[in-house]
Amino acid sequence: MGEYAAVPAAQCLPIPRTLDYTAAAAIPETFFTVWTNVFERGALQAGESFLVHGGASGIGTTAIQLARARGARVFATAGTPEKCAACERLGAELAVNYHSTDFVAAVREAAGERGVDVILDMVGGDYLARNIELLARDGRLVQIATLGGSKAQINMVPVLQRRLTITGSTLRARSVAEKGAIARALRAHVWPLLESGAVAPVVHATFPLREAAEAHRVMESDAHIGKLVLVV
């Protein structure tokens, strides 16, 4: 096994002073993904409201903390009562169990009739129409995966009437320069939050590298909250 890896310097960041190697390993690529999608593409601002689907995932736990730390009202969906409780401990004002509750109705009741300003979605499929229903005027939907399907039908009238933005992105295919720009933004805006303890990577469990298959089994069981880390 090699001791060193060659990587573009622009994409590298120092380990935050307060974190060990295990916690630092849980930063990429969730913090990169959340920053560029929620705060750059979604333009979430302090005082706005934000909904993240899959709130107990690595992306979700990161998004909840960063949005809350930067002054937004935060809502989330998750698949079990335990995961919903974890989302609320991390800073979500309300976490909705999507198996038992209509998230559109529940979030609108909590956030107010105007809806929410930004939604980060990894589901797609029939969630698209429901997300549009929940967005406030000038709201932004940011799509980063299609776990529920890549095709959907929607009514375009609300998009026009409420001036909605529907956007999306992928991270891995971006250029070194683009990834470097995200890294610089993280260093400026997120590293102080990590070093102060205002936000932290959520590590569900660690596994020796030789037990990578077991880590995959835990991931596929969908029982984890946050990240799984392989220790070399």
Mind explaining what this structure looks like?
α2 packs across α3 and α2 (30-41) packs across α8. 40% of the residues lie in helices and 19% in strands. 38% of the residues are buried. α6 (127-134) links the parallel β4 (116-121) and β5. It is built from ten helices and eight strands. The chain has a domain at 30-168: Rossmann fold. The model has no long low-confidence stretch (mean pLDDT 96). It is an alpha/beta fold and 232 residues long. Strands 3-2-1-4-5-6 form a six-stranded parallel β-sheet, sandwiched between helices. A two-stranded parallel ribbon has the order 7-8.
SSE topology:
Layout: H1 21-25, H2 30-41, E1 49-52, H3 58-69, E2 73-78, H4 81-90, E3 94-97, H5 103-111, E4 116-121, H6 127-134, E5 135-143, H7 156-161, E6 165-168, H8 176-189, H9 191-196, E7 203-208, H10 212-221, E8 227-231
Parallel strand pairs: 1-2, 1-4, 2-3, 4-5, 5-6, 7-8
Helix pairs in contact: 2-3, 2-8, 5-6
CATH-scheme architecture of the domain at 30-168: 3-Layer(aba) Sandwich
CATH topology of the domain at 30-168: Rossmann fold
Number of separate helices: 10
Strand percent estimate: 15-25%
Instruction: Specify the helix fraction band.
Output: 25-40%
**What's the CATH H-level homologous superfamily of the domain at 30-168?**
NAD(P)-binding Rossmann-like Domain
Low-confidence stretches: none
* Mean pLDDT, all residues: 96
CATH class of the domain at 30-168: Alpha Beta
Main β sheet profile: 6 strands, parallel
- Shape, principal axes of CA atoms: globular
Measured distance between first and last alpha carbons? 10 Å
Q: How much is the radius of gyration in Å?
A: 18 Å
Q: Give the class from helix and strand content and strand pairing.
A: alpha/beta
How many E strands?
Answer: 8
Output the strand order for the largest sheet: 3-2-1-4-5-6
Order of helices and strands: HHEHEHEHEHEHEHHEHE
